[in-house]
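User: My instructor asked us to take a sequence, write out its structure as tokens, and then describe one feature of it. I'm not sure where to start. Here is the sequence I was given:
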Amino acid sequence: MRLTRLILIAGMIAWHIGSCSTDIVQTTAPGSEALQDVTPPAGDVLSATPRPARGLPGWRIPVTWAGLNLHGRLVYTAGRRVQGRLLSSIEILDLQTGSVFTVFQAPPESWADFLSVAPDEKQVLITYMPPHGTDQFGQQGIYSLPLDGSTPPRLVYAPEIRSQDCYHVQWAKDGRSFIFAMVDLQTPPRSKGQRSLNYNLFRMAYPGGSLQETAESAYWPRFSADGTALVYVTVDEVTGADQLFTANADGGSPRQVQFSGAQAAPVIDAPLFLPGDNALLFSAASQPPASSVPALWGLFSGVMPASAHTTPSDWWSIPVGGGVPTQLTHIGAVGLYASLSPDRHFIASYSGQGLFVMGLDGSKLTTIYGDTGGLPGTVNWIP
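Assistant: Let's start with the prediction itself. The structure tokens for your sequence are:
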């Protein structure tokens, strides 16, 4: 078994250990509600035995968020420990009925984490590490998967070098290309930053395009609502601190988002354009990285050490033109990743402790689903 597979799975365990000590409880946002975990009924867990996509188990959870009048579906990744094994899956939750459908259950010794639903809502791109023994040697590549779960994942792109892995995949708004971050675990970092491994952004036409480098030393790409702009995180080569950048969709004309005031964030993750594309949402550590969680992650995975994604973090916002960031939540959650509702009135958040929704200002914070396994993942909100 390849070293990347071992350190990735060990890193997931470290994440899980760290996340278990943090409860998602909003304490200061006006009008917010304390989050109450909702778990599936006893026995409704994924089987440890791989099965075809169709006919995978589904269940229904209480719609405790009915007062918010939410519509659409959440497509998300989830991890669970079943019979001593870590298993990942892709699931869909209907926000009106509370029904949950398993699109894909990854077999043992495989992993799916980042996902992006196509604009036509018929398929999803995932970063996926197939089971040991496949031609990819444990690499994490880009795969496509029908959203109805009718066929297994199909390889779209696999890195040419075995030490490379793919992350943060995102469809372009026209559905004709996608962007993703690729890291080479054996290439020395460009900066002295603790978490500054050699990430680069690449774009590829779909299907069958060639790689085009979009930005160096960059990760966490997201497109604006109209598809003309891109936001991503990069690392200062001198200080190692994270920097937030916007650019044209092809990576041209990059512009740094300047932070001011005492709340400037040294660690930034998972940025997202807010409605109007005039402000950005991002995750940042809500307290200095303490405890052993970041150290464990760096020891085991070497992929994202000292990241806001692996330490207790909160949602913040800042104007695209820069300024003083505003803290929207006080929840101290790990693994935050967000998606706007189709009506652009709410934000859905994935975290290691579950899925929750909130208003654009951080109010009305409400748990939707408390069973993501304490592991990294993503969520897309679709009609």
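For the description part of your assignment, you could build on this observation: The longest helix spans residues 3-19. Try explaining in your own words what that tells you about the chain.
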